[in-house]
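Person: Please comment on this record:
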Amino acid sequence: MAENIRSSRLGDKVKTRVKDSTFDYSLLLVVVCLIVFGLLMIFSSSSYITQNSRRYGNDPLYFLKKQGLGIVMGIGLMLVTTTLNYKFFLHKFKFRVVTIYYFITLIMQTMVLFVGMEVNGAKRWLSIGGLITIQPSEFTKIALILMLATFWQSKYRWPYERHKLLYVGFISGPPIILVALENVSTAIVLCVIVMGMCIIAAKKKSMWIGLTLLGATGVVVVLTKMATGFRGQRVKDWIAIGNGLKPSQSGFQILQGLYAVASGGLKGAGIGNGIQKLHNIPEPYNDMIFAVVCEELGIIGAAVVLFMFIILLWRIYNTAVTAPDMFSGLICAGVFIHIAVQVLMNVAVVTNSMPSTGVPLPFISYGGTSVSILMAEIGIVLGISRRRVFVE
């Protein structure tokens, strides 16, 4: 345990204690609970589909096994990022580690446009040797979080807000545009992460809040008035369902998800006893898995899941406000925003509070790359929690 003297925001000298031996076990525990629960729900929502399909080798454990591999990879990443000093990302090998990682993600995201795998009409994945499939946009999320945290911790080099805005646009624009070409929903998540971190870090917040509101208005206008193709149809289906009208075939999934939520009642039908997942909800183990949770565990079970996410976010927030410096605090803030916005968007889609986006529910929806990157982010937060600062 070390002690040092720091200046408070009021200019007074305050004594702080840096606990190098502490570890946020409650954060780790809630993450483990969410992951285990996710495995249970993936098996429940996918076993009927896979055991009755030659495509999946008639194996009821098909998606459970694949998710397990992603979790094993995530455990490895979490162990590395937990034990690694977060300042490692600022180290220079001609270039900073975070800068090297940032450009690697840009290359990966560019490769998706040319040699990416297309699944259900979306080209978002890269295949490595035909054995491993990764989604580069998940790596892009953590790259942007680290790049923005690096910039804001050295913001004294940029005295004017307009200069900061130009730099933020320079580092966030290319990855967001590359992602948006094939995955608008993930691009929106990236935009929220960027603007959220900037609002938190900036001293003059009015400009950043104004830009965020302007950008959000622009997105709403584009999606509701100018969107074409399948994105425009999603908006039309959302409006139709909200008005009690029959949607098109593309809105069938959301409508059946609402039936699942309504049929669950207070206590639900029980794990494995859901009906909508059998024939009506396409790929219920993906972004519509919360509808299966509502049907099988009811309002009570869904509330418990959301409460676990609240605890998770609270622990990340606690680590952020007690972080030893601005860089580590902003990393925690970025992880907080990333998880929070995905939970809100996923639940909003399932309850038809917003048009369908395809954003997964963190730690619970099927997706090996998603869960492994989330675990890596949690590992960084856990590593920072070991170096928290407490004011005496």
